NH(3)-dependent NAD(+) synthetase
Amino acid sequence: MANSLEIQQTIAQALNVCPPFKTEQEMITELKRRIQFLKDTLKQSGLKVYVLGISGGVDSLTAGMMTQRAINELREEMGDSAYRFIAVRLPYKQQADEAEAMQSIEVIAPDGCEIINIAPSVEGMVSSVHALQTVAEAKRDFVIGNIKARERMVAQYAVAGTYDGLVIGTDHAAEAVMGFYTKFGDGAFDIGPLIGLVKNQVRAFAHYLGAPDYLVNKVPTADLEDLKPGLPDEVAHGVSYDDIDAFLHGKSVSSDIFKKIVDTYHKSMHKRKLPIGP
């Protein structure tokens, strides 16, 4: 039977977890590698535009700053002004942390910005699904939260289709291990520049790129459920990001935390798989 460390290493390998940064130079080298990945992928696609939804959290902030830097470098290297990054704001009615979201846009300084309020499309879908009117309030609220996430991705792909671009995702290892995203919602995208990073590495990138501390260290929240507005990710997880990061980097964690992460990883396995056939 595998011991705890072996299980942690197996999961980390499956998620392609980036090793801890031993020095600042290691962090910078990895950041540059990922920015180059964004540049190479866009060139190979034959397209010239990236699209990303900006939520106000550190993940989309970091991915946005990386993407804009990649686009700036591509324009200079290729002598082609057609390369662009379009940030998309996707509030549901009035977002509680709208100020932080707009501050993130200011920090990123994208080439363009679209604002699409998803409330009408969400409400239209909810009113059309008659089964939703008969379930318990908490269940209904949770399902509607997933509808919000999926409508946001529909909007991003609509923008990307309009500009002939690719959609950037913000998934990273600390969310992936917990299955903390909506299947075919924020889990659907073309390019994932943060894949394999743990949360403290995402923050390290943001800090190095010049993001202000209050955005780098903002309490993460998906904020999808009306009955639980601003619910912190770590409350939803039942474990802290520091504990998740430690687990993924093969460090010792308590037996309760180990069990919580491993159990959640297995329960959410379907989210990390392609659709299956017979």
Observations:
- Residues 137-163 form the longest helix (27 residues).
- The CA atoms of residues 174 and 198 lie 5 Å apart.
- The mean pLDDT is 95.
- The chain has one domain: 4-272.
